[in-house]
Amino acid sequence: MAESVYLNVQVLKGVPAGRWTMIMTMFSKSLGVDCTHCHVEGVFEKDDKPTKQTARKMLRLTGTIHREIYEGKPSPINCYTCHRGSQRPKRMTSASPR
Questions:
Q1: Separation CA 33–CA 47 (nearest Å)
Q2: Most exposed among 10, 73, 79, 89, judged by the fewest C-beta atoms under 10 Å?
Q3: pLDDT value for 74
Q4: What is the pLDDT of residue 97?
């Protein structure tokens, strides 16, 4: 698991370590940023950047949505749902599904 391979894993415990790079790449592409947006280069385990704390909050939020609304079934909600390749979430113009 990721927490046995990587240091300071807090939210994504239980994720297979082999999926870690794919997940981090998805975060990066969904927000249009590179790793150093959230991580201190060379010491990824550090918590020095506020963006890393925000990312953890967003992961908790989406985790809650997956558990409570989708009840563990496949969910269409992920970082790209709101961010669409931008650091700031895109403004939603309608509450209706797209």
A1: 18
A2: 73
A3: 83
A4: 57
